[in-house]
Amino acid sequence: MSTTSYFALVPAAGGGSRMGASLPKQYLSLAGRPLIRHALATLCAVALIERVYVVLSPDDAHWPEDEFSDLAAKLRVLRCGGATRAESVANGLRAMSGVVAVDDWVLVHDAARACLSVDHVESLIRAVGNDAVGGILAVPVADTLKREAWGRIAATVPREDLWQAQTPQMFRHRMLSTALAAAPSVTDEAGAVESLGLKPKLVAADATNLKVTYPLDLQLAEWILANRK
Ligand code: CTP
Ligand code: MG
Question: Domains in the chain, please, with CATH?
Fold first, then answer.
């Protein structure tokens, strides 16, 4: 069997509309650095990952080049973001294809999940590195879930067997490219792979790997980063 290599792909071409800030959220300050710097630095610090590709919007005028000179050995910037997250990922996969072999692993990670730790990434790689399909970090749902209709509860949804999907989501380059071409309107990579009839592995992570979406999440993320270890 040939040895497979590991790459990271970080979609960062979103506008951050739910944050309601004047800058896309990936460029807001978090713990004294641009938010996007945190996840990129973590992925670059994972020894097994060869290169980290970040996908920016083609007209992005905010990328802070000087913040990343220490990561230059592993980090590559791709200005090929699309109209949706799935399109940004698909474009990134295409741009990587000269360097990445069809069976190499690609770990797709949201730029907005700034509190990702090296431990999170290594536990995913450990659990999925020999898997035939691939897998994702996720957490079991803790709260009781309600389905809403017109502001009132229409039903209680059993939470057994329900998980919240996080990133990284780890699949082989060819499988993920094929899956996204066949199912371009998915909201995560696992969704695309599931549409091929395959069953990605769930790897338990924890709530510190939150996605910064609303203003309050910035404060939570700062607290998590300040109190780690
Ligand atoms: N993303 C992307 N290309 C898009 C939309 C989103 O690369 N066309 C990226 C975002 O930059 C982010 C990740 O996908 O790192 C997860 O998306 P989300 O948290 O929804 O970010 P935004 O789409 O920017 O925020 P919002 O949905 O609030 O507008
Ligand atoms: Mg979005």
Answer: 6-227 (3.90.550.10)
Query: In the Cβ-directed half-sphere of 9, how many Cα atoms lie within 13 Å?
Result: 32
Per-residue pLDDT 10s for the chain (229 aa) are 458 999 999 999 999 999 999 999 999 999 999 999 999 999 999 999 999 999 999 999 999 999 999 999 999 999 999 999 999 999 999 999 999 999 999 999 999 999 999 999 999 999 999 999 999 999 999 999 999 999 999 999 999 999 999 999 999 999 999 999 999 999 999 999 999 999 999 999 999 999 999 999 999 999 999 999 7
Report which secondary-structure segment, H or E, holds 170.
strand 163-172
Residue 91: its H or E element:
helix 85-96
* Ligand 1 interacting residues, C-beta cut-off 6 A: 11-18, 26, 55, 81-85, 88, 110-112, 211, 213
Say how many C-beta atoms besides its own lie within 10 A of residue 229's C-beta.
3
Spacing, Cα 213 to ligand 1 middle (Å): 9
Ligand with the closest atom to the CA of 83: 1
Q: Which ligand is nearest to the CA of 188?
A: 1
Ligand 2: distance of its center to the CA of 213 in Å? 9
